[in-house]
Design brief:
- Belongs to the cycloisomerase 2 family.
- This is Beta-propeller fold lactonase family protein.
- The protein is built from no helices and 29 strands.
- The chain is globular.
- The chain has about 350 residues and is an all-beta fold.
- Strands 4, 5, 6, 7 and 8 form a five-stranded antiparallel β-sheet that branches.
- It has a domain at about 40-130 and about 145-185: YVTN repeat-like/Quinoprotein amine dehydrogenase (Methylamine Dehydrogenase, Chain H).
Length: about 350
């Protein structure tokens, strides 16, 4: 069965060569470029609305978020003007079918909740309280807040990462506004980037600077604490290699982490919730910024080699060790599945 995707990337304003949002298709392991769906300046992250025929793009260097109506599988139309978000807005999450769009801004640390109008366009956002560095030292220069990702938890709460403050924050969503429930401090220098939630309730956070996967677990009151941390293998070194995306296998028994600089995807099994490295496989390109599992294949967006690789997964250990195909795409940074029926 053919499956279609939206691909975002960096344009010249972000140091890349992308022209905007492209549509691609995979069939029998073969990727095909369906063309430019809409011109955009560095749509580095794309989020799809779960109900409406609308997608959202973080126009990172512009500090804006754009909404697009889906006209066809290979064509988009701008839904109103792009709206201001914050410096280097880098990630978007739609908080459910009737929830707001959560935006994370790397440049100034802002986290915003944009109300979504009935047609999918965006209203004026509510800005969450600024992060407070848990490692701040009086008399020393303040460290910059670097918001990087938001995730909707099964509880309905929102969790966000702050790569600059080495912390995560858990929020209650109250009448469209984010109310801080808990700040979780990791180790100074970890640089938490992205995370996934397991059906068990465990949260797995990949650290960009620490090159580890940190597991968090909530107690009976819903307060999260660190329960384990796992390195990504003997060949992955903090400060030299930089983990990017972390994903959970649909069978929920493996984690996949793309590692920039090392040119690999690391696979971790889950043993009673604790990650254990099973091995790694080449990503067949440079700077694997994002990846997406599609059936028994892994699509890897190799930003600096301008390709999306299709890697086949081994049935036994899950390693993406079979090269099935490659598609030339300028500066790809995000792959988002199109929703069937749109």
């Amino acid at each position: 069965m053919d499956k279609k995707f939206w691909v975002g990337g960096y344009s010249p304003d972000g140091g890349g060569a992308s022209l905007g949002i492209r549509a691609v298709e995979i069939s029998n392991g073969v990727l095909r470029d369906l063309g430019l769906a809409h011109h955009a300046d560095s749509p580095s992250w794309i989020a799809t609305h779960p109900k409406l025929p609308v997608i959202y793009a973080a126009l990172e260097p512009r500090g804006e978020v754009a909404a697009y109506a889906i006209i066809d599988y290979d064509r988009l139309e701008l839904l109103g003007k792009p709206v201001p978000a914050g410096d280097l807005v880098c990630h978007l999450t739609v908080a459910g079918s009737a929830g707001p769009l959560i935006a994370s801004c790397y440049g100034d640390g802002r986290v915003l909740a944009f109300p979504v109008n009935p047609d999918g366009s965006l209203a004026k956002p509510a800005v969450a309280p600024a992060s407070k560095d848990p490692f701040a030292v009086p008399g020393h220069d303040a460290r910059a807040s670097r918001s990087h990702q938001s995730t909707v938890l099964r509880s309905g709460r929102i969790i966000t990462t702050d790569l600059g403050h080495d912390s995560l924050r858990v929020w209650d969503l109250d009448a469209g506004e984010l109310r801080l429930r808990q700040q979780i401090a990791l180790r100074k220098g970890d640089g938490p980037r992205h995370l996934v939630e397991h059906p068990s309730g465990l949260i797995y956070v990949v650290t960009e600077h620490g090159a580890e996967v940190v597991a968090l677990q909530a107690d009976l009151t819903g307060i999260y604490r660190e329960v384990s941390r796992t390195g990504l293998g003997e060949a992955i070194f903090a400060g030299e290699h930089f983990p990017a995306e972390i994903s959970l296998d649909p069978n929920t028994n493996r984690l996949y982490v793309g590692v920039r600089g090392a040119r690999v995807v690391v696979v971790l099994g889950l043993n009673a919730g604790r990650p254990l490295v099973l091995g790694s496989a080449p990503c067949e390109g440079e700077w694997p910024r994002h990846h997406l599992q599609v059936g028994s294949s892994l699509l890897v967006a190799n930003q600096l080699s301008n390709t999306i690789q299709v890697l086949g997964m081994d049935r036994q250990d899950g390693l993406p060790s079979k090269r099935l195909g490659s598609l030339a795409i300028d500066s790809p940074t995000c792959i988002a599945a199109q929703v069937a029926g749109r």
